[in-house]
Amino acid sequence: MKRLLLVGGGHTHVEVLRRFGRAPVPGVELVLVSPHRLTPYSGMLPGLVAGTYEHAAVHIDLERVTRFARSRFLQTLVAGIDPQRRVATLADGGSLEFDLVSLDVGSAPATAGVPGAAEHAVGVKPVDRFLQAWDGWCERVRNGALRRLLVVGGGAGGVETILAMHERLARETGRPDAVACALATDVDRLLPMHPARAQDLVGRALARRGIEVHLGMPAARVEPGAMIAADGSRLAADAIVWTTGAAAPPWLRQLGVALDPAGFVAVNECLQSISNERVFAAGDCATMVGHPRPRAGVYAVRQGPPLAANLRAALEGRPLARYVPQARALSIISTADGRAVAVRGDWAAEGAWVWRWKDWIDRRFIRRYAAL
After folding, report:
1. Is residue 150 very low, low, confident or very high in pLDDT (cuts 50, 70, 90)?
2. What distance in Å separates the CA atoms of residue 64 and residue 298, rounded to the nearest whole number?
3. Which residues contact 200 (CB under 8 A, 6 or more apart)?
4. Looking at the domain covering 110-245, what would its CATH class be?
5. What is the pLDDT of residues 24-50, one digit of tens each?
6. Per-residue pLDDT at 298
7. Which residues contact 169 (CB under 8 A, 6 or more apart)?
8. Dihedral of alpha carbons 323, 273, 242, 127, sign
9. In a 3-state reduction of DSSP, which class is residue 103?
10. Phi then psi for 313, rounded to 5 degrees?
11. What pLDDT does residue 123 have?
12. Which helix (H) or strand (E) element contains residue 90?
């Protein structure tokens, strides 16, 4: 009996499990290891923060998916992997031998290099920690103990997060100015990877809500109650959210496989480690050599089918198939007011119809796994 070990319950692995459940490979045991039974869908997290969705509506039940795949689910952490010996060590003291291992463990907050950021700011990942902090902040707002909120990072994640927070707090307090919301970024424009039209639409959405935007303000350090910028200016805040991009989980450096310069697993066009044929990786924790793409949920979702096909081929001793991700992907940024901004290449559009489109796409994705 061969064993395929899936480490992490991200967007790519849930599709791998669904496809193996629909067409099992004889003589192969699947094991999924994840510290959480419920895995969040990133596309709906802003809606959860804003209060548009309930918790259950944006999470996939990994136990349900693994049952469908006739596989085992171990709710624990992987403490280490030895690809040469083909053994994974678990946080509970156990170990698992494997024939193939696939990693879909996401990323970590990019707080390195900014003193105090890890201690005094909360990253949007890991999601469970962020949501726990958010619930506590909402309670403090209701008690009048939190009046200033700061998001650091001017990408799509930072914009969606501050708009969603503002919407939820305005609705709960009945006052759009109950909490002073601000966003700070180290570059001179919002959404630097998006076209000018999208930047303008998002800037207008922030202005409509009275959210302060501080451009060209790189963080030098974070201390209790404030972010200190490189020019010495101080942005006071009772709570700080860190959305400045993704960092590689530190434990990947102990894997003994090739990594890119930032510490992410380097994979080829088959989503296979460039240095060990028994290791695969996808989602935010991996970098496709020669085809770098943003670490966004849309790319992780698209990697599900090719990863499933190549894992199946490797288990059956067949040649693997190349997969080249699309150069441009549709991005939809929720503005948390019943509207959204759609972006693809140089095209951008805004409206309530965009939000309805996004909501339909996201709910369809969740239903795919809830119906198993």
Report:
1. very high
2. 23
3. none
4. alpha beta
5. 999 999 999 999 999 999 999 999 999
6. 84
7. 138, 141, 149, 178, 179, 181
8. positive
9. strand
10. -65, -45
11. 93
12. strand 87-90
Q: How confident is the model at residue 63 (pLDDT cuts 50, 70, 90)?
A: very high
For 371, other C-beta atoms within 10 Å of its C-beta total: 8
CA distance 328 to 325: 9
d(CA 337, CA 358) in angstroms, rounded, equals 13
Could you tell me which CATH number the domain at 2-107+248-316 has?
3.50.50.60
- Scanning the structure block, which residue is given the tokens 């099992």? 24
Q: What share of the chain is helix, strand, coil (3-state, %, to 5)?
A: 35, 25, 40
For 195, residues 6+ apart whose C-beta sits below 8 A from its C-beta are 343, 345, 346, 347, 348
Q: Is 200 helix (H, G, I), strand (E, B) or coil?
A: helix
Instruction: Give the number of other CB atoms < 10 A from CB of residue 66.
Output: 25
Tokens of 270: 């088959």
CATH 3.50.50.60 range(s) for the chain read: 2-107+248-316, 110-245
CB 257 within 8 A of CB 276: yes
Residues 281 and 103: their CA atoms lie apart, in Å, by: 4
Residue whose pair of structure tokens reads 């409206």 in the numeric block: 351
What is the distance between the alpha carbons of residues 233 and 313, in angstroms, rounded to a whole number?
Answer: 56
Helix (H, G, I), strand (E, B) or coil at 53: coil
| pTM of the shown model | 0.93
pLDDT at 8 over 90: yes
* Six token digits for residue 213: 């935007």
